[in-house]
What we know:
Elements: E1 7-11, H1 19-32, E2 36-39, H2 44-47, H3 57-68, E3 72-76, H4 84-89, H5 116-133, E4 139-143, H6 159-173, H7 176-183, H8 210-238, E5 243-245, E6 247-248, H9 257-261, E7 268-271, H10 278-292, E8 296-302, H11 319-329, E9 332-338, H12 363-382, E10 386-387, E11 391-395, H13 397-405, H14 415-431, E12 436-440, E13 450-453, H15 461-472, E14 476-479, H16 502-505, E15 507-513, E16 521-525, E17 530-542, E18 546-552, E19 560-567, E20 570-575, E21 577-578, H17 580-591, E22 605-612, E23 615-622, E24 628-630, E25 633-635, E26 640-642
Parallel strand pairs: 1-2, 1-9, 2-3, 3-4, 4-5, 6-7, 7-8, 8-9, 11-12, 11-13, 13-14, 14-20
Antiparallel strand pairs: 10-22, 15-17, 16-17, 16-18, 17-21, 18-19, 19-20, 22-23, 23-26, 24-25
Helix pairs in contact: 1-3, 5-8, 6-8, 8-13, 10-14, 14-17
The structure holds beta-D-galactopyranose.
Amino acid sequence: xxxxxxxxxxxxxxxxxxEERWDSDARMMAELGLDxxxxxxxxxxxxxxxxxxxxxxxxxxxxxTLGRHGIDVILGTPTATPPxxxxxxxxxxxxxxxxxxxxxxxxRRHYCAxxxxxxxxxxxxxxxxxxxxxRDSRVIGWQIDNEFGAHDTVRCFCDAxxxxxxxxxxxxxxxxxxxxxxxxxxxxxxTFTNWDQVETPKFMxxxxxxxxxxxxxxxxxxxxxxxxGEQVQILRALSPGRWITHNDMGWFGELDYYxxxxxxxxxxxxxxxxxxxxxxxxxxxxxxxxxxxKPFWVMEQQMGKINWWRxxxxxxxxxxxxRTWQDIARGADGVVYFRWRQVSFxxxxxxxxxxxxxxxxxxxxxxxxxxxxEVRAVEDRLAGTTTEALAAILHSYDDRWALELDPxxxxxxxxxxxxxxxxxxxxxxxxxxxxxxxxxxxxSLDGYRLVLAPQMVIATAAMAERLTAWVExxxxxxxxxxxxxxxxxxxTGGVLPPGPLTALCGATVEEYDAPPPSEPFAVTFADGAAVxxxxxxxxxxxxxxxxxxxxxxxxxxxxxxxxxHRVGTGIVVLCGTYGGHDLWSAILDRVAAEIAPASSAPxxxxxxxxxxxxxxxxxxxxxxxETVAYEGRTLAPLGVVVR
Length: 643
Ligand code: GAL
């Protein structure tokens, strides 16, 4: 087994190639410097060709071939792709959408996580794999399933989900009266008189009650957590000493990744850049690292063009290198490229790979070889380190769901809400080269000096208490619009926002609205600086806080937009509107200049450190396609310095 502190591998599909080819593949992987391969995650029909008939001979030979060349194996459990025999004999395992339409077989992820029948088949194949490979010295770890929720498959509305949802609600509310009260079902005469009437929120003419929708999202997320948990439990017993992970999808918002992270040894995620900027990718890393506040793996690192986005450009020369170093700088202890060889059949034929479809090396091959040599040269210094973060961004899936279910403006629909809140706050820090962990709203804040809470819609007294204690001890907290405006039940709860955060902020929200883009307004600071704002306006009433900025222009001209409150030795800022990273920056300049000063690096030059065990490794990554100068050095386009 390889002992590299930083693992570099590739996704490999032996089942796609003749067995005579495997040895050359493994030899070439080793020559390239790769040390591991993830395999088998879609190969259920090869492992169990007929119900109850298992064939692992081919997989044993594949593991043996890889192992012979020093390539360690990560095994994927294959439940993302149920075999045909299963779905045709037991069609009840298939998902149903909101309108009852069945999601058919032929691609992947079409099964329901709540289906007890599917779970049983899933447990059985995982047990068989665990029994055969759990103690195999060539197997270093496991990936459960593949990308839960990809292709819009988190939510299902089948009978099993209705039953599962009812059970989940009974545990949470105990009585139907409590459920009726909490959801406010008297609104529009929706009072339940019998548990059988309670269903997943299927197709309806108008919106379901917000409490119903939010609980349904929590339930679906928990169903996937339980699905994952069953497999984890089996493998813990059958595969001692091996790690278990799942490949998450960065900012994907339909599963509560914090809750799913609990069962895993570490997080891994699939890094595909589509049209996103280097800052967006950095923020995904910061979120993935923040799920467990520890290093993670990139289980699928794009190494060239993909096949599934609106446009699918090639990587520029040097881009595999700069992106891989960004992975490592931001906390990856393992990077696994997707995929080894371009396939000449199936639905991903246009997807690039390390080898082209004729098995000759692609342009990326030599780049990866050179990069691996560089990684090997510094990896001992990286052992036991993690990315240093003095700031945190608080993030919660409940907040995202509450806002998504009731955006109140089309300018916060879907991805736009992320851009307005989390990405904007993160960008203000990125431009200063201040690294933040993106952590759960109820995470410990030990070790952080600056905390941004761009979208803390739901707040509780317990959260307020914890934040207050942290601020009193010298913390600097900045809250964004709509803070504390909802209860965990997704109601406004009969108190003015920021609800439980009122004493901490020393301010209330007296009025709010969601103006259209045709009504321009700005946030103006005492020194006259004005930052254009948009989308939402909380009009603040200072109750102990000082006013830091006013609205200028529009309906609320002259009224407070941003307040600052001193609490103990710390500071709390409440900002009632969205002004992108510029507004976050203007606030940071005024209240956090010492902790987060402006960076001396040129734009899109990322400076990050990994520290630990008394070691510090600094990474300087030029994401620009031009040469830039920084600290007396010349950085080539996409150039990286590790020091
Ligand atoms: C990922 C998925 C892989 C492959 C890849 C193509 O999302 O996990 O199986 O489909 O995309 O880019």
